[in-house]
Amino acid sequence: MESLTSEVSEILDSYEISEFVHAVVYVDRSGFRRYRAVEPPLAKEEAELLARLKWALQNVSGVKNGVLILAREKREERLAELVKRAASEFKIKVDGRVWDKLLYYLRRDLLGYGVLDPLVRDPHVEDVHVDGPGHVHVWHSKWESLKTNIVLTLEELDTYVQRLSALTGKPVSYADPILEGMLPEGYRLELVIPPASPRGPSFVIRKYFVVPITLVDMVRMGTISADAVAYLWLMLDYGRNVIIVGPTGAGKTTLLNALLYLIRPDAKILTIEDTREINLVHEHWQALLTRPSRAGDVRDVSAFDLLAVAMRSRPDYIALGEIRGEEAYVLFQAFGSGHSGATTIHAETIEDAVKRLLTRPMNVPPMLVSLAHAFVRIVRVKAGGRIVRRVVEIAENMGVARGGRPRLHYVFRWNPERDALEQVNESKHLETISRTRFVALDALKRDYQLRRELIQLMAERGYTTPYVVARVFTLYHLSPERALEAVRAGRI
Question: Is 149 exposed, middle or buried (0-12, 13-18, 19+ CB in 10 A)?
Answer without folding.
Answer: middle
